[in-house]
Amino acid sequence: MVPLPPEWGETSPLEVPHREAILNHVRNISSTLAARMAALLSCLALVAAALPATASASSVHSGKYQCYQFDPISGYLYWGFVKVKGHKYKMSGGKGKYSRKGSKIRWKSGPLHTYHWSGKVISGKKFKIIDKADGLEINCNR
After folding, report:
1. If 0-12 CB within 10 Å is exposed, 13-18 middle and 19+ buried, where does residue 56 land?
2. How many whole angstroms separate alpha carbon 103 and alpha carbon 21?
3. Residue extents of the structural domains in the chain
4. β 104-107/117-123 pair status
5. For the chain (length 142 residues), average pLDDT per consecutive 10?
6. In sequence order, what are the residues at sequence separation of 6 or more whose Cβ sits closer than 8 angstroms to the Cβ of residue 55?
7. pTM (predicted TM-score)
């Protein structure tokens, strides 16, 4: 014969089966959650400290960048290369100087200045050369 459950109000909260096990489980979850959040926050702080500060840099990373123009019909078209060193650039059309403020690049001299292009830094290994007249974008990757 199966015993009937007690009627409402016949048992006290202290007589609930497995009460201690349930309370221990709840205590462990709250302390584990706090420890996990602290570990997550410290990991995020370490990752943020390890990332390069590209927005505060005053120049584009030195190196040779391969540049491509995207065309919806033909796909990517090779545009040439740009060599960057300090605040100077060199390409097949000539050489010149540039300045950088945040993610914006301003071409101060050379072919990109002559034809009124601008630039934008995407990451430590990528930047765009942008034609102000029609918005054409040239993607340059290191």
Report:
1. exposed
2. 56
3. 13-50, 63-141
4. antiparallel
5. 57 60 64 57 51 58 94 88 95 93 94 93 94 89 94
6. 102, 103
7. 0.58
